[in-house]
Amino acid sequence: MHISWNGVYPAVTTKFTETGDLDLPAFLHNLRAQIEAGVHGIIIGGSLGESSTLTHDERIELLAAAKDLADGRLPVILNVAESSTRAAAQFARRVQDSGADGLMVLPPLLYRPTNGETTDYFRAVAQGTDLPILVYNNPVDYKVEVTLDMFEELLRQPNIVAVKESTRDVSNVTRMLARFGDRLKILCGVDTLALEELLMGAHGWVAGLVDAFPRETVAVYNLAKAGKIEEARRIYQWFMPLLELDIHPQLVQNIKLAEAMVGLGTEFVRLPRQPLKGAERERVVAIIQRALRSRPQL
């Protein structure tokens, strides 16, 4: 399936049972809500999907379930996050053979590579698959920045086509558009900068709080792209306290709590993560409750 890389792409959470096993019914329940809200693609097994705790077999199981539910209506993209180039290239090939429509690829984990090692890593993964690749550029969390000069090299590989832009520098969108034009699709990867980056020309939004609030997320995107900026801004202003739950070390627990409170998931996470407790849970619950009391009519 062709991926336009325009629109809202939820980085979906992975649902678990209380004992830490995959909960596919809960996973699919949330995906149905995303599809009904009009999202444009699904990303599985990212950081928000508790990637570090998932086996390769579990990722493929989630992919198969999502592909079956999507039934060709929208693309399903799987995350590749590995410590070695060989492992990343091998898993990318397996993901392609398992029916994914595209890949999101993180830089090498654990080891902080040089710029040359980083570009060679992404190039090797891309050469091992025919799938289109979304490069995850998040120097804040992963300590590796893919610079514009590095993208100039990477874009010689025809299936490296998009970036999840998480540098936290809104002006980077303008720099990328000026340098690469239509050669590189730009998707905002930071919820609290989404409207700003969409208005500066970003093509899409890899969203987090969409997992609990899919209709509001899609509305902000659609209104921004339709030029209805004031309408988009009003929803975004309401949304901001919730979106700030995404830029937090416990973003997974925060968003899963929000999913549970709106009936789109559970709080169960996989160890070493644990659900929020005590005063911190009360703080997050209060933020979500305030938002629910003033939830906009769409």
What's the short version?
The chain contains twelve helices and eight strands.
Q: Explain this structure to me?
A:
The protein is an alpha/beta fold and 298 residues long. The chain has a single domain (7-293), classed as Aldolase class I (TIM Barrel, Alpha-Beta Barrel), CATH 3.20.20. It has 12 helices and 8 strands. It has an 8-stranded parallel β-sheet. Helix 11 crosses helix 12. The longest helix has 16 residues, at 278-293. The model has no long low-confidence stretch (mean pLDDT 97).
CATH fold name, please? TIM Barrel
Proportion of residues in β-strands: 5-15%
Numbering strands along the chain, what is their spatial order in the largest sheet?
1-8-7-6-5-4-3-2
Query: Total strand count, please?
Result: 8
Give the full name of the CATH homologous superfamily.
Answer: Aldolase class I
Q: Which spans of ≥5 residues are poorly predicted at pLDDT below 50?
A: none
Question: Which radius of gyration do the C-alpha atoms yield?
Answer: 18 Å
What is the CATH level 1 assignment?
A: Alpha Beta
* Residue-averaged pLDDT: 97
Structural class: alpha/beta
Helix content: 40-55%
Query: What count of domains describes the coordinates?
Result: 1
Q: What's the main sheet like?
A: 8 strands, parallel
Shape: globular
Helix/strand order? EHEHEHEHEHHEHEHEHHHH
Terminus-to-terminus distance: 30 Å
- How does CATH name the architecture? Alpha-Beta Barrel
